[in-house]
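Lab notebook, design round three. We kept the backbone fixed and only want residue identities now. Task for the bench partner: fill in a sequence for the structure below.
Input structure tokens:
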């Protein structure tokens, strides 16, 4: 566990004497946010060199292209016309001439999807191998500055770029709530702008069957109308939905249209046909699929019977699906199968006897392997959720790891391909904050920072095992998402963080640089009509302090935003006076104080934020001979199944070590908890005001005589800060945390002075 200093994305606290300076600094930071961040391209390219000057896009300019990239040229021409009203001409050549304003060259680059983009005063040159040329155009699109009907300018630059991972995915669940063909295409458009290349289309589930299968017409005639049948009492009430659902399905012509649309944007569509669970819609349409009990009188509605009828049925279904989707993969689900239903099935019981199975998970494995053999015979590969590991993994299956990373790590160690899509980091149906008006979701909030900080290649994998990680994917389930605008609100801006973590070199990741670039993209969201969630306020965070006066300057990264706030625990009403940013707050803190605020931004929904301020008393420093102290913190590392902190102090299975500035503590391998107890001193050399935070994504519990950092708080969802006036001397420090892969790469304790200077841990942590 490193104890080092990182620049926190929150602004440093301010004291009275620094208020004017901080107002100026806030304005400077805002200005820098507007003009820096390496041209604001997301995902961050491998290499970017900016030059002085600009290229001006003019009407009737020629896009010169060879046949290999004609689709790319036509796409760019259409984009400029519909977005800006600019009319360019596409000309096809055997060899691209050197005098054309925009030149797109085909290459045979050995790195798939690589591109070069050069913008000079006289020409734009894009070089790439199909997908690479398209991605070069996407970077170019992000560089265009202007509005419809205005002169369009592009900064001069040289870019060389290629993706880190080949699987850069996003799911779309149309089973719970149906989305139209036009809505799906708009979804694909924004994916394309950020260089994602896999759309995982969740077409079937309990709540609806959305794909036309000609051999089984009832799948859509009945199975696509589950909301209707639940409404009239012929199907179970859809309790998971926020409303009564939205019925509908895609004809095979619709599917072909969407597939072609995605292909033109170099996106593969991965169809998912759920089995053996999550199959109520299919079983409702064709009751013969249902898993029955021994009397045959009480059919269940979600589990498929492992009968020959079922296997034949699904082979016919998949036969039609494979004709519609050129993707080499077919997703068969395999998750959350209610296997106990098979205990009542004569078919399943007979299967267990015949195959000498002793565990229901072996039926699950048998089912998946049967389907895999059929897919392989048709030159397709099976992919499923990590539950397909249960009972034995199908020989060539690819695992999509959603129940955390463990399934993916196991599969990679077995030399199976893996797509990392773990809960919580990659689940976009979770709310983005704990604010009062955030849409409800299934899980605790997931912020864009949590997404950005995720690393698909676990440190528990060897370099060779890590090569089986194909990439990562963000998932979104739509039980609670009833409209397309709501869907956009949940996706953006988190999608940009996922795009960068799957494309950009891991060594180049920089959350501060990305943050600035992301805020610059709200201009594009407005241009494209995307309903993205707006950012949180800087400086509005939970604070413990021993000071009697609290001062803070609230700033905002987007121009034109306004804030309404109260210091009396009540949310301001819509008639309250709005204040422009920055906003200086100076208020006494006797016991506790709650700030409530809402922020508005033109053309977007408002957000609500709150922060609790609490006064604490801190005992004076100790008189200890510092000459006898050593750098770092004393640590006890417990390998245990215990989760109760007080019980740790009675444990005997521990390792005693010292946590130094450059040290780190990795979790134990296996099904253990790795608890760390740390203690020592916080050494203050100069009396003054200090801010203490933890860099851990999930906070430790930390004591400075009293609790100053609460445990299990997500630092991005529930930010915590301690602002203390400390005298010169030593303050006893004690704490606990649960070590994991993530916090093995994060700073335990951050200490910042009143003027925003981050101190080096080696100078203030001792034992």
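Proposed sequence:
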């Amino acid at each position: 566990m490193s104890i080092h200093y990182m620049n926190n994305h929150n602004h440093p606290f301010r004291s009275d004497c620094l208020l004017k300076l901080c107002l100026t600094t806030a304005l400077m930071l805002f200005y820098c946010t507007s003009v820096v961040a390496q041209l604001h391209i997301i995902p961050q390219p491998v290499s970017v060199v900016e030059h002085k000057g600009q290229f001006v896009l003019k009407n009737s300019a020629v896009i010169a292209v060879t046949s290999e990239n004609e689709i790319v040229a036509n796409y760019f021409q259409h984009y400029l016309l519909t977005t800006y009203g600019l009319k360019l001409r596409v000309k096809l050549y055997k060899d691209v001439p050197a005098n054309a304003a925009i030149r797109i060259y085909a290459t045979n680059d050995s790195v798939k999807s690589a591109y070069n983009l050069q913008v000079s005063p006289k020409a734009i040159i894009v070089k790439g191998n199909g997908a690479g040329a398209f991605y070069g155009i996407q970077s170019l699109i992000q560089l265009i500055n202007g509005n419809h009907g205005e002169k369009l300018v592009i900064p001069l630059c040289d870019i060389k770029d290629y993706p880190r991972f080949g699987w850069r995915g996003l799911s779309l669940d149309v089973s719970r709530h149906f989305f139209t063909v036009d809505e799906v295409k708009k979804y694909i458009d924004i994916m394309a702008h950020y260089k994602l290349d896999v759309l995982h289309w969740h077409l079937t589930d309990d709540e609806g069957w959305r794909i036309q299968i000609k051999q089984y017409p009832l799948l859509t005639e009945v199975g696509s109308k589950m909301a209707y049948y639940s409404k009239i009492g012929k199907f179970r009430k859809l309790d998971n939905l926020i409303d009564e659902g939205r019925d509908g399905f895609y004809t095979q012509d619709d599917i072909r249209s969407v597939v072609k649309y995605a292909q033109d944007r170099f996106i593969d569509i991965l169809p998912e046909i759920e089995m053996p669970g999550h199959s109520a819609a299919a079983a409702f349409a064709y009751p013969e699929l249902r898993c029955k009990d021994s009397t045959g009188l009480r059919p269940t509605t979600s589990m498929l019977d492992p009968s020959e009828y079922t296997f034949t049925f699904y082979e016919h279904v998949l036969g039609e699906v494979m004709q519609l989707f050129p993707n080499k993969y077919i997703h068969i689900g395999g998750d959350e199968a209610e296997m106990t239903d098979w205990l009542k099935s004569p078919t399943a019981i007979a299967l267990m006897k015949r195959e000498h199975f002793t565990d229901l998970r072996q039926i699950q494995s048998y089912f998946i392997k049967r389907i895999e053999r059929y897919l392989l015979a048709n030159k397709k590969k099976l992919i499923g959720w990590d539950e397909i590991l249960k009972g034995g993994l199908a020989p060539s299956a690819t695992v999509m790891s959603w129940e955390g990373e463990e399934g993916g790590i196991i599969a990679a160690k077995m030399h199976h391909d893996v797509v990392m899509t773990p809960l919580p980091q990659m689940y976009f149906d979770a709310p983005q904050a704990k604010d009062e008006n955030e849409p409800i979701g299934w899980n605790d909030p997931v912020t864009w920072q949590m997404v950005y900080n995720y690393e698909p290649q676990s440190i528990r994998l060897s370099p060779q095992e890590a090569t089986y990680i194909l990439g990562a994917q963000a998932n979104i389930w739509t039980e609670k998402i009833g409209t397309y605008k709501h869907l956009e609100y949940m996706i953006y801006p988190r999608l940009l963080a996922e795009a960068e973590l799957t494309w950009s070199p891991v060594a180049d990741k920089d959350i501060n640089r990305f943050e600035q670039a992301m805020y610059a993209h709200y201009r594009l969201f407005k241009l494209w009509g995307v309903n993205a969630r707006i950012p949180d306020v800087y400086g509005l965070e939970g604070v413990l302090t021993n000071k009697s006066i609290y001062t803070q300057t609230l700033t905002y990264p987007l121009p034109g935003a306004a804030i309404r706030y109260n210091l009396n625990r009540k949310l301001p009403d819509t008639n309250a006076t709005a204040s422009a940013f920055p906003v200086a707050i100076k208020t006494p803190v006797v016991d506790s104080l709650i700030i409530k605020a809402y922020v508005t931004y033109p053309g977007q929904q408002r957000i609500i934020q709150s922060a609790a301020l609490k006064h604490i008393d801190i005992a004076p420093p100790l008189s200890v001979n510092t000459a006898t102290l050593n750098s770092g913190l004393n640590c006890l590392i417990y390998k245990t199944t215990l989760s109760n902190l007080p019980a740790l102090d009675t444990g005997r299975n521990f390792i005693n070590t010292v946590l130094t500035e450059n040290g780190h503590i990795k979790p134990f391998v296996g099904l253990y908890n790795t608890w760390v107890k740390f203690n020592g001193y916080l050494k203050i050399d100069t009396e003054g005001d200090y801010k203490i935070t933890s860099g851990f994504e999930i906070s430790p519990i930390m004591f400075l005589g009293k609790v100053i950092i609460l445990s299990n708080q997500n630092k991005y969802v529930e930010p915590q800060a301690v602002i203390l006036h400390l005298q010169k001397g030593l303050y006893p420090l004690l704490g606990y945390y649960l070590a994991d892969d993530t916090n093995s790469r994060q700073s335990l304790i951050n200490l910042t002075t009143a003027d925003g200077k981050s101190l080096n841990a080696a100078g203030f942590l001792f034992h």
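Keep this in mind before ordering anything: Residues 360-377 form the longest helix (18 residues).
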